[in-house]
Amino acid sequence: MSAGHDSALPRRLSLVPSVPGLESPLPAPRRQAPPPRTSAAPGEPTIRVRLAAVTDRCWQCRTKVRAVVGVLLEGRAFVPFDEVAEELAAALDPRVLAARRIGPIAHRDSPGVEGGYISNGCVECDALLGRFALEDLLREHLAGGGTYGQLDIGIPVELPAVAPLRRAAHG
Ligand SMILES: [Zn+2]
Fold it and tell me: CB–CB of 151/68 below 8 Å?
């Protein structure tokens, strides 16, 4: 019997006659651990950040919610939400967010912005939490002596090393 071109097995996996008492020298195939959740393409450089969020009340259903206002690099440099919204939407797991009372980061229609935009939403009713209102909350927090570090809610995420993140990392 010859190995034809139609063989489904690669050559290195072809069967050899077993020798009684001789163990295979090949280690058993190991299960691969899943890679960390990221929106980066394989091989693309990434930067590890943590989510910064403010607490808000949904204007529609009045539920107490959190909303992402940006990301923190190594707990220091801050990059605003708008500059990494697309990357966040692709990388974040809605279930992880929901556990912290944050709705999905996703594109939503907005009466004020043609075509809508990638935004925060209410974790209960998915109402759009507008970016200007959230920027106001952030400004109030900082004006009252609050720090960016206080907004760290302990959710790490690996983002593609896009320009705003690289600038913040090296600034
Ligand atoms: Zn709501």
Answer: no
Instruction: Give the distance (Å) from ligand 1 centre to CA of residue 134.
Output: 15
Residue in 99, 74, 60 with CA at minimum distance from that of residue 152: 74
Q: Give the model's pLDDT for residue 4.
A: 46
Span from the CA of 65 to the centroid of ligand 1 (angstroms): 8
Token pair of 126, please? 């998915």
Distance CA 36, CA 112 (A): 36
Q: Which residues surround ligand 1, an ion (CB under 5 A)?
A: 58, 60-61, 63, 122, 124-125, 127
Using the mean position of ligand 1's atoms as its centre, give its distance from the Cα of residue 123 in Å. Answer: 7
Burial of 45 (0-12, 13-18, 19+ CB in 10 A): exposed
Hunting for tokens 């190991």 — which residue is that? 30
User: 114 Cβ partners below 8 Å, 6+ apart?
Assistant: none
What pLDDT does 112 receive? Answer: 86
For residue range 110-143, list pLDDT tens digits in order: 988 899 999 999 999 999 999 999 999 999 999 9
